[in-house]
Amino acid sequence: MRMTPFFPVRLALAVSVVAAGRAAAAFYGDPPDATHPWAIHDDNRPQPPRVEPGTPSSQEKPGIPPSDAVILFDGTEASLAKWIADKAPEEATKWVVKDGSFQCVPGAGYVRTREEMGDMQLHIEWSAPAKVEGSSQGRGNSGIFPMGLVEVQVLDNYNNPTYADGFAGSVYGVNPPMANALHAPGTWQVCDIVFRRPLFDGDKEIDPGSLTVFMNGVLVQQDTPLEGGGGHRGRSKPRAFPEKGPLKLQDHGNPVRYRNIWYRPLPKRAAEGGDTSHMSAEATARKKVEIAQSIREDAAKQTGKNQALRYLESLCYAADAGAMTAATSWINGWLAECKSLPVNALEERKGDVMQVNNAVNYLMKNSFLPAAYPARAELETLIKTRGWDKK
Question: I need a labelling partner for 105 at 20 to 30 A (CA). Which of 95, 234, 283, 287 fits?
Fold first, then answer.
């Protein structure tokens, strides 16, 4: 007995439905323009990658990082291999792993990651000694240095005033935190940092870079410009940073502990060639050509109405005589066929006619088709004759 090959048919139907859905979603929101390569609600825009979220920490137990995080310290002796002393030539750090934490040994010096990173979301938890000793900058002092060049201050300020731009959660020497959100000493403080390095074109600053910091879930820095990175006593000036650098932790003479250290690399900004909503005119033009080419490649795999609509859609991004000719040729032939159909058969094509008409009107409204595009008049005549223009 011969079996009916229904799986390939189902697959073809699925592809057809997807293509039809995509075509229906086009010609909807405001189109691409000189500085926006995508339309509003654009189905051609890449989908966000799936990331499994992690879990929050408690005082007793560190949380689980998100699925795409790069783990820098997970509480094990093995993760100590990811860190070295901040010295040259390279040598092992004297910091120790103790009870699942990475602890500063006073006098051992700064520690840095072997790995280098640039723009990132950084998660790090720290704890000042439970035994309170010292005051101001002498109490539970350490620091978190993205790229080793700008410090987010670590300090026990629970009941310990100091100069504002040296407070826990400050961009040290640059900007105080907006709030003191610390738990008592000896408990874990959860710090989340969004770091963007400065961008320069030669000597010209394109983007000053920024730090956004949450301390125990409280926003304490919001897009704070780096102003060169800050420092002790002296005011820093804007400067270029390298593309990547190590994360450093400071030895300031206090046995501060760290745990659950991970980061997620961030995508490029528009100023460095990233694909964002608003881009330079030059970058937008390049991206629109790229999108148009992708749509035309997809159109070449389609047939009939779906192919014609995809070719028309590509014109929203970049003009192309071949795409215009292919779409117009199909529409003209299809309209001629529609006119020859009996009323009942034509009624079955109402949805298709309205969809093609919507696409043509959209393109003409936004000047992607010439004002005298012949098919428009043909479509309007057909729609009015059948009364499809009435609700």
Answer: 234
- In one-letter notation, the amino acid at residue 189 is Q
Spell 340-349 as b/e; 16+ CB within 10 A means b: eeeeeebeeb
CA distance 158 to 173: 20
Domains in the chain: ranges and CATH = 22-46+275-386 (no CATH), 70-272 (2.60.120.560)
Q: Are 344 and 316 in contact (CB under 8 A)?
A: no
d(C-alpha 177, C-alpha 218), whole Å: 10
C-alpha to C-alpha distance for 64 and 54, rounded to whole angstroms? 5
pLDDT by residue for the chain (391 residues), tens digit each? 333 343 343 444 444 445 555 555 689 999 999 999 999 999 999 999 999 999 999 999 999 999 999 999 999 999 999 999 999 999 999 999 999 999 999 999 999 999 999 999 999 999 999 999 999 999 999 999 999 999 999 999 999 999 999 999 999 999 999 999 999 999 999 999 999 999 999 999 999 999 999 999 999 999 999 999 998 988 999 999 999 999 999 999 999 999 999 999 999 999 999 999 999 999 999 999 999 999 999 999 999 999 999 999 999 999 999 999 999 999 999 999 999 999 999 999 999 999 999 999 999 999 999 999 999 999 999 999 999 998 6
Q: Which two tokens stand for residue 119?
A: 């723009």
CA 362 to chain centre: 30
Residues contacting 118, CB < 8 A, separation 6+: 147, 197, 243, 244, 245, 265, 266
Cα 158–chain centre separation: 35
* pTM beyond 0.90, yes or no: no
Asked if 57 contacts 260 with a C-beta cutoff of 8 angstroms, the reply is: yes
Who contacts 292 (Cβ-Cβ below 8 Å, separation ≥6)?
314, 315, 317, 318, 320, 323
